[in-house]
Amino acid sequence: MSEAKLLLVEDDASLREALLDTLMLAQYECIDVASGEDAILALKQHQFDLVISDVQMQGIGGLGLLNYLQQHHPKLPVLLMTAYATIGSAVNAIKLGAVDYLAKPFAPEVLLNQVSRYLPLKQNVDQPVVADDKSLALLALAQRVAASDASVMILGPSGSGKEVLARYIHQHSSRADQAFVAINCAAIPENMLEATLFGYEKGAFTGAYQACPGKFEQAQGGTLLLDEISEMELSLQAKLLRVLQEREVERLGGRKTIKLDVRVLATSNRDLKSVVAAGGFREDLYYRINVFPLAWPALNQRPADILPLARHLLVKHAKALNVADVPELDENARRRLLSHRWPGNVRELDNVIQRALILRAGQLITANDIIIDTQDVILGSEDLELFAAEPDGLGEELKAQEHVIILETLNLCQGSRKLVAEKLGISARTLRYKMAKMRDMGIQLPN
Ligand SMILES: Nc1ncnc2c1ncn2[C@@H]1O[C@H](COP(=O)(O)OP(=O)(O)OP(=O)(O)O)[C@@H](O)[C@H]1O
Predict the structure, then answer these.
(1) Which segments constitute the Sigma-54 factor interaction domain (predicted)?
(2) How far is Cα 212 from Cα 193, in angstroms, rounded to an integer?
């Protein structure tokens, strides 16, 4: 996550949710409110680095908020969102101190481009923590591959650390000083993915009020990570293949070709070869990207990583919580971590460590602080107590039904997360969260 905090003020609940999805997927830390008045309350409780606010809202509205900010937080940048028809008022707002405005409707990319001008993302993300021989060998291999300019396909189950490995490759390549741009192909709505990847000119489609460079252009000279590439539609796969072959891109609605110098990395948590065999992924694209395949094993296949990772996550979250003395894991807590199967991999371990930090009573984390969902298979822990499951607002039966619906829809859509999210009417982010929760509970999901 970015260390910077962003305050989003929008009274239209569905637009607010969509904007929040976009910002959070881009790793920004956000608080959202529905009015200028609530924004003022939030400003009294938290420190922010950027405010994005709608102009037309009930009550004091965006301009009233801007006025308040001018008086109480004159240095805090404010980005206003306004309907196209009322751009005049946005221009006035800039005179009143807003740093810029966005004309609605705007593409997620336009929002992210604007935000990144005021809030740089934290670049020193997790370095891979490894201790197991298998992981050490993988990292050594990744380091050698990094030195080349080859495309790399990183495979591995969800939460195993594929993005961490991708960043590691970039950091150890000759492109390390240039941009690392990641795009999650499963999280961006199908109709926006092409524009997001390749960029567009003003007027290319309804709502394209400003020209916008695509991810390929943003990664110029650096590395582009195509996360969850298997979720890309076949028609877009064909266009991606052309860009990779020709090493040039044309923005949507544009006539100019732009030469590219971009290294491409991709990840998938599905068995891509079988997706190819089933006709869901182009074979030619598979071979173009799969020049060098790397595969993270599941966490339970590299048990020597568990405790060093747990320690690393403890330090990381203790720092975030301003805990000065990082607590230690006692013998039983360590045994409990080592005896679990970790179906949700490192992400699940991360959750467990965060819970433990909250639950611990003193400087030692005990087995009682290690809460793993009770459905999980616990190996060799007969002598350990059974732990209560996390309280959850949703009744057990309802939750089980939801799991069945998700599983059935996954089968129906042959594993395509994007289609499943569309069919169930939930955002890709919500689906990812629910699937991660299901994995954490030990439910097997199709790759
Ligand atoms: N070896 C590692 N060292 C440090 N942190 C790690 C490591 N592996 C994973 N993590 C952490 O675990 C979390 C999940 O990792 P990451 O997002 O890279 O997994 P992923 O395989 O890309 O997941 P998904 O397929 O769901 O996108 C992140 O918070 C990441 O920082």
Answers:
(1) 138-358
(2) 13
